[in-house]
Structure formats: C-alpha cells, structure tokens
Amino acid sequence: MPEAPDSAPASSTAPVSTRSKIIYGLGTGNDMWGNWLYVTFAWTVFNQFLGVPGTLIGTALMLRLGWDAITDPLFGWWSDNTRTRYGRRRPFILVGSILSGLFFPMLFLVGKDWSNTAYFWWMLGSSMVFMTFVSCFNMPYSSLGAELSPDYQERNSIFKFKGSIQKIMEIAMFTAGAFATALIWDNATWADVPQKLAILVSNAFSWLGSMGGALFTFDFAAALSLMATPFGLESGDGGENVNTLLGAQVYGVILGILMICIGFLLFFGLKERYYDKIVSKSQDKIRITETIWEALKCRPFRTQLAMGLSYSLGLSMVGTLGLYATLYYVSQGNLTEGYLWNAGMGLANTVFGFMGPLTWGLLAHRTDKRFTILCIQISGIVVFTATWWLYTPEVQWLQIFASGSIAFTQAAFWMMYGSIGADVIDYDEYENGKRREGAFSACGSYIMKIGMMLGMFISGVTLDLTGFDAELGGDQSDSAIFWIRFLLAAVPIAGLILSFIFVLNFPLTASKMREIRTQLEERRGTV
C-alpha cells in the first residue's frame, strides 16, 4: 500500500486561500483558449467550411507549435530573470493576456474566396504572432503555479482547483463549433451581429433556466432532452447556408475580451510567494541554456516529461478524430446536429471533468501521487476501449457519456502532473540552489510541443489517409469511418500504456519530498 503523504511541517507554511486558488484556476481559460482552441476550431472553419485540405491544415498547426517551442523558452527565461515591484511573473501575465485577447479575432480574418495557399500562409503567420503573445502569458502563468505553496498536499489542492475550473473554461472549446455553425448565422453579415447576439443570449438564458428546473426536480429525462439543444441552439437539416466564418470571427472577439479580463484578475489577485523572500534578495540570474537544455539534466523532470509526452501524444488525435466521429458517423454528416452534440459533450466534459480532480484528489490525499496517477491511467484505458461502442448513431446520447468519462480521467491526470511538477522544482532547488520555475515550465513546454507537432501533423495526414473527403458530407466510405473510429480508441490506449511505464519509474515519493522540504527550510528558511 502506498505511504500516506504527510506534509512537513504543517505549521511552517501559510495555506493558499480559496480565493487565490480560484483566481489561479481562472487562468486556465487563457491557457486553453490560447493554446488549444485553434487546434480543433481551425478544422471547423478552414476544412469543413472553406475546404482547405487536411494536410495543409495539419502542416500549419505543426509549424505553429514549432514556433511556440521557440517562444516558450524565451519567455520562461525572461520571466525567471525579471525583477520588478510587481514580481517576475505577473507583469508578463498581464501583458500577454491583453495582447492575446486583442489579436485573437485576427486568426479568422480571412475572405471566403481565397486560394488554399493563401489560407495556409494566413493560418501560419497569424497563429505564429498569436502564439508569441500566448507564450508571454503562459510560461509565467505555469511557473506561478509551482510558487504558490511549498507544501506537498497543498499543491494537490491548488491543482485540484485548477483542474476543475479548467473544465468549466473548456466549455468555450466544445461550444466553439456549435456557435460558429448555429442556424442564427444563416446568410448573416456583420450588420446582423448585434441582433443575432441578443437572440443567442436570450435563448441561452431560457435554456439554462429550463435545465436548472429539470435538475432541481430530478427530471433527468427532460435534462437529457435539453442536452440535444445546448444553450438553446437548434439543429437544422444540414442544407442551410450558415456563415461559419462570421460565427468564428464573432466568437474570437468574445473570447478575446474574456482573456483580457482574466489577465487583470490574475495580475491584481495573486502574489508571488518565493519572490520577496528568496529570488529578489539572493538569487543569481538564470542563463538561457538552463531554460533550453540544463533542466533536462534533472532525472525526475525527464521522467515527468516522458510520462506527459506519451500521454499527450496518445490524446493529440482525439480532438480531431472524436469530432469527426461525431459529425460523420454518429450524425451522418449533418454538421449542425453534430456540433450541437459536440457542445452537449462539452457540457458533459465540464461536469465530469470538474468532478475528476475532486474525486481523484481524495485518493491522492490518502496515498502518494504516483499511485494515484497509475490508477487514473488504468481507468483511461478502460474508457477509450469503450469508445468503440459509445460512439454510435443508434444511441447518439452515449457519446456524451464517452466525452464525460474521458474528461473525468484526463482532468485528473493533468492535475497530478502539475502537482508533481512543483515537487520536481523543489528537487532541483535542493540539488542546485536556484528557483527555476520558468526554466522548467519552458523546457517542459517546448519538449511537449515538439512532440505534439508530430501529433498535429499526423492528425491531418491520417484524416486524409483514412479516405475522408469533406465534399462527401455524410456519404463517407465505410473504410474511412472504420479507421476514424479505430484510431480514436487505439492511439490513446497506446499512449496511456507507455505513460504508465514511465510513471512506475518516477522517484519523488511522499517521504522523499518530506525529506527535501525539511532540508530546504533548514538551508534558506520557510516561505
């Protein structure tokens, strides 16, 4: 039985307030929307609406991540070495949020009659500029998470809040396609936008009221029926002339405004615990080589990276293949209906994903982190095996359960991944005498993204190789449908098995971290 993860000593550290944990968790909105929304939303706009080939889209997404692998180390190193009255992380968080929010709508500022080559270069150029601003936010934001507390258990709590709130913020990712393909945009222009938005808001509040009433009265049949029209969005027959591009542009403006607001909340609502007591007084500057390469000398960090990379590579194709399984297998090519189901799956993803960190966090509180992650991965293998039967046109609502179950384990995995990342940085301080959160965040990010470049590229190439053809709509070949369904299950399972093996070799147990913390506090005092 794994050892109980007692902290040492509990009285030496002021706990992180619930308010601070919630504010930090809200930053996952900027993280998710900045890094990952475009990865799936680009297929809706550029492939399904504008007809850009999957290989071109996959290549653009791959090169976008390649650029991100350059900017992440830059901002990680820069924030490690910054000394201001506001700390070393929060100024970057604020500036990155403002610039990301302002530029977000530019990702979809294209015309309907451009060539495929022009679309490709716009996708690549605009997303590279955007990802520079996202790196400015995300590297300091990720680094800040490891600085909020030195306590083994408190870190579980911080990342439990972060993981649960992240699932709420991810609603915007699952509803992006439903918003952009909503019937409200049928033959719409920018002149119609204020009126259309008013209708959408009214319908959404009405739907939320009905859903709240159904749940309050335990009328689960009515609640399930409402899931087919999330936020009041309705399905057509697939023959409408929906201006998906306009819907995407409006959506980009809305999310951009929210990103700016979140940046201000983070800047004014959080403190940097280690900055005043350690970094600003005695720590030397970090060399750029420490950000790019030297962090990899840390053995626990290498194991953590291998674990996360295997997991993320396995799941990198799920967003695309899962979406296409819904659109072209479950909904038989009716995009409006399919995206409504996808939005409903997003709601299930939020509910189950919100519960995942809370539930698995209870296990982590009673055992060590490594054992908890192993249990999460076993559950994930079971869930992805079940997707073969849960995605079916005969019982369409089963895919909602599939999405929720995936989120239940996925949110818990990344919760624990962040928590052990904070332990790795303590280990590095113990070995080298420096707090290098930015270096580790940046190094981890670019290694993960270089690996995921391959996943993004393979997603586009694989989709083409399955025989999928967007012009065929719901008349895809049986072979194309089979391979989309098969790979949706098989690829994540392979990644989970590989990740499981790496977790077995992770060396930072609860007792080891108690020992490290005691020696650090004897050396430089408490924080």
From TrEMBL:
Keywords, sorted A to Z:
Cell membrane, Membrane, Transmembrane, Transmembrane helix, Transport
- MF GO annotations: symporter activity
**Any GO CC annotation of this UniProt entry:** plasma membrane
Instruction: Enumerate the transmembrane spans.
Output: 36-63, 92-111, 117-137, 205-228, 248-270, 305-327, 339-364, 371-391, 397-417, 438-460, 480-504
**InterPro entries given in the database record:** MFS_2, MFS_trans_sf, Na/Gal_symport_CS
Q: Where in the cell is it found?
A: Cell membrane
Q: Which domain of life is it from?
A: Bacteria
Which SUPFAM superfamilies does this entry report, sorted A to Z?
A: MFS general substrate transporter
Protein topology in the membrane: Multi-pass membrane protein
GO terms for biological process, alphabetical: carbohydrate transport; sodium ion transport
| Claim: Isomerase is one of the keywords in the record | no
> Which family does the similarity line name?
Belongs to the sodium:galactoside symporter (TC 2.A.2) family.
| Protein name, as recorded | MFS transporter
Q: Which organism is it from?
A: Pelagicoccus mobilis
Origin organism lineage:
Bacteria, Pseudomonadati, Verrucomicrobiota, Opitutia, Puniceicoccales
